[in-house]
């Protein structure tokens, strides 16, 4: 039963380390904007960790596809630095291979909200009405 908790704790620890590195250590201008690590999923055997990230645009516009691809390439180029830091901070025999994926859940939520709005369905925050 304890094994299921280990990969969750490891994923959270990797998420924390990468988030701290984005704030302090990584100087790549492609990662200097509003980039957030939303989750890290570690495989059962601990050999791979999928890092989900979100790219936020400014208040008026969404980041374009080219900007998102640049951020993905920046993550891939900083992978070695991230693995080294994870290895320093977490005592592991084998540091997981990092895979980076765009988290599209916010975009999907906005799309669904737009469809609901276009259909004219009232969004109600109060269930008692």
TrEMBL record:
Subcellular location, in the record's words?
Cytoplasm
Q: Which GO terms describe its cellular component?
A: cytosol
GO molecular function list = ribosomal small subunit binding
User: Which residue positions does the secretion signal occupy?
Assistant: none
Ranges annotated as spanning the membrane: none
Query: Is Cytoplasm among the key words of this record?
Result: yes
| Any matching Pfam family | RBFA
Give an example GO biological process: maturation of SSU-rRNA
The alphabetical list of record keywords is: Cytoplasm, Ribosome biogenesis
Q: Which family does it belong to?
A: Belongs to the RbfA family.
Tell me, what does this protein do in biology? One of several proteins that assist in the late maturation steps of the functional core of the 30S ribosomal subunit. Associates with free 30S ribosomal subunits (but not with 30S subunits that are part of 70S ribosomes or polysomes). Required for efficient processing of 16S rRNA. May interact with the 5'-terminal helix region of 16S rRNA.
Self-association state and partner proteins as the record states: Monomer. Binds 30S ribosomal subunits, but not 50S ribosomal subunits or 70S ribosomes.
NCBIfam families per the record?
Answer: rbfA
Query: What is the name of the protein in this document?
Result: Ribosome-binding factor A
């Amino acid at each position: 039963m304890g094994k299921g908790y280990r990969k969750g704790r490891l994923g959270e620890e990797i998420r924390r380390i990468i988030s701290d590195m984005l704030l302090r250590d990584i100087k790549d201008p492609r990662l200097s904007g509003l980039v957030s690590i939303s989750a890290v999923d570690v495989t059962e055997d601990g050999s791979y960790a999928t890092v989900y990230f979100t790219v936020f645009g400014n208040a008026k516009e969404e980041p374009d596809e080219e900007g998102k691809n640049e951020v993905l390439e920046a993550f891939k180029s900083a992978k070695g630095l991230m693995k080294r830091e994870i290895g320093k901070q977490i005592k592991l025999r084998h540091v997981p291979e990092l895979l980076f994926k765009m988290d599209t859940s916010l975009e999907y939520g906005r799309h669904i909200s737009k469809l609901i709005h276009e259909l004219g369905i009232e969004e109600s925050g109060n269930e008692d009405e």
